[in-house]
Amino acid sequence: MLEVKQVSKLYENQRGVRSIDFSMSRGEIVGFLGPNGAGKTTTMRMITGYLNPTKGSILIDGLSMADHPRKARRKIGYLPETPPLYPELTISAYLKFVANLRDVPVRDQKQRVGEVIEKLGLQGREKQVIRSLSKGYKQRVGLAQAILHKPDLLIMDEPTSGLDPKQIIEIRQLIRDLGENHTVLLSTHILPEVNAICNRVLIINQGQIVLDEHPDQIGGAMGESFEVRLEVKGPKDDIVRELSGLPVIGSVKELERDQSMSESESVLLQVVSKDRSDIREALFYKMAERGYPILEMKKESLSLEDIFLKLTTDEKKVEQPDEEPEVEADA
Question: What range(s) does the ABC transporter domain occupy (predicted)?
């Protein structure tokens, strides 16, 4: 659905982005993360055609944004961080205005406006002036304009920024629902939002993609060892000796336990594999062989927050361009 091929945007006095390369398939909801100034907004503006890349190409459903900009843009819905609303218009008047801009046939406009009003929960507010809406409802109207023309690709920049917890929950559910019929690229600073909504994560830092992975597979992609928190009922010394003797085990370490738990009841351990292989089955069979009941076995992994900080705070030298950057006067 989306192909970003070796795209760079170079500025004379700014970092820009360099050699970004990724693609998205139909039906994916992809979280796009990065610290301030990393290049998220620049990348999304290039994808949507608001900026021209210095180098590289962007294809929307096979259409080049450079060669067929109008046709490519018709396949995109865009919700910037601040929705492009006209506060003096009513919701229905604004959506009709957007329908005209998006070349929705006149005969289909009434039906299409009605559909997005129902989908976004705006029924009963059609005649309400946008200025009088809460921020949550303004965000809904912003989403409505983005999907009015039935785009294949939906780009959203910080869609829950500034909303209260109830509004955030509602907008997240709307995004999940939209993901059933649209490919979604979602930029956000709220990391739990990615875990709650997205089935893939892109992290950009200093203008370059530093991670592209499924949320559940990020640890392995970063070379993280397979780690298990294990509670076993039985004598500590024997348990530690048996586990340490397994060829797949790299280390066994005792963890602090609840003080109310008797020393003789169980032992709480951190067990780490020698490589990234899953060690849970080996642990189960060894403890079963020795007759020691496993009370708890839980895979431990870095949180998305930990991974984000690791990738975006490590000192990295960004390669300098081999040629003088091309400076564009973008409107």
Answer: 2-231
| Strands of the 267-273 sheet, one edge to the other | 249-254, 267-273, 227-232, 294-300
308 is written with which tokens? 């984000």
User: Each residue of 126-181: pLDDT tens digit?
Assistant: 999 999 998 888 988 998 999 899 889 999 888 887 777 887 888 788 888 878 87
The one-letter amino acid code at 84 reads P
CATH 3.40.250.10 fits 223-313, yes or no: no
Q: Determine the CATH number of domain 2-213.
A: 3.40.50.300
The contacts found for 164-171 with CB under 8 angstroms, 24 or more apart, are 164/136, 166/136, 167/134, 167/135, 167/136, 167/139, 168/193, 170/121, 170/136, 171/136, 171/139, 171/140, 171/143
Question: What tokens does 281 get?
Answer: 């089955």
Per-residue confidence (pLDDT) for residue 194, from 0 to 100: 80
What is the greatest pairwise CA distance in the chain? 79
The pLDDT tens digits for 263-282 are: 557 899 999 888 778 899 99
Distance CA(260)–CA(122), nearest Å, equals 54
Domain boundaries, the chain: 2-213, 223-313
pLDDT under 50: residue ranges of the chain: 261, 315-331
Please provide the size of the chain in residues.
331
Angle between the 106-119 and 91-101 helix axes, to the nearest 10 degrees? 130
The CA angle 25-27-30, to the nearest 5 degrees, is: 75
> How many Cα atoms occupy the beta-carbon half-sphere of 180 within 13 Å?
5
Q: For residue range 14-31, list pLDDT tens digits in order.
A: 768 888 999 998 888 998
